[in-house]
Design goal:
Ubiquitin-like (UB roll); globular; alpha+beta; single chain; DNA polymerase, domain 1; 2 domains; about 160 residues; 5-stranded mixed β-sheet
């Protein structure tokens, strides 16, 4: 039997209290305890970026972070991102550019892109490519994704 810990954190702007096992990942907590399934489980090793979330404003692979380490932190998932102006702009531009194809990588890419655009509001195409290189996509070849992020920064300004 695994030890449990009570944690409190802000999730998408709302204070949350959750009891988690000491071994539970943040991804498991989000999907299995809180029922936010927009953050995807793929590799489980931090290699693909499908589980990218923001923790205190920085991108994190939630499959690698223990849920207990969320205590006192500020988390933003795709569900919280899409209600923000940059999230809405990214959602529209990903759809318009056809950057969603199967859609599995899209939540992690959009979270990563939002962070990139917050840090570099006028990123050029090579900066966008570097900014998303930790997020894998099997369907698009990345051109449509880079187009969408470039379009979103224009729409957001």
């Amino acid at each position: 039997m695994s030890a449990t810990v009570n944690i409190m954190f802000k999730l998408n702007g709302v204070e949350r209290r959750v009891t988690v096992s000491a071994q539970m990942s943040t991804l498991e907590m989000l999907r299995d305890r809180i029922d936010l399934t927009g953050t995807k489980y793929a590799c489980g090793e931090g290699e693909c970026g499908a589980c990218t979330i923001l923790v205190d404003g920085l991108t994190v692979n939630s499959c690698l972070m223990f849920a207990a380490d969320c205590d006192g932190r500020d988390l933003v998932t795709i569900e919280g991102l899409v209600t923000s102006p940059i999230g809405e702009s990214l959602r529209k531009s990903f759809t318009k550019s056809g950057a969603v194809q199967c859609g599995f990588c899209t939540p992690g890419l959009m979270v990563q892109a939002s962070h990139l655009l917050e840090q570099h509001p006028h990123a050029d195409r090579s900066e966008i490519q570097r900014g998303i290189e930790g997020n894998l996509c099997r369907c698009t070849g990345y051109k449509k994704i880079v187009d969408a992020i470039a379009d979103a920064q224009v729409d957001a300004s």
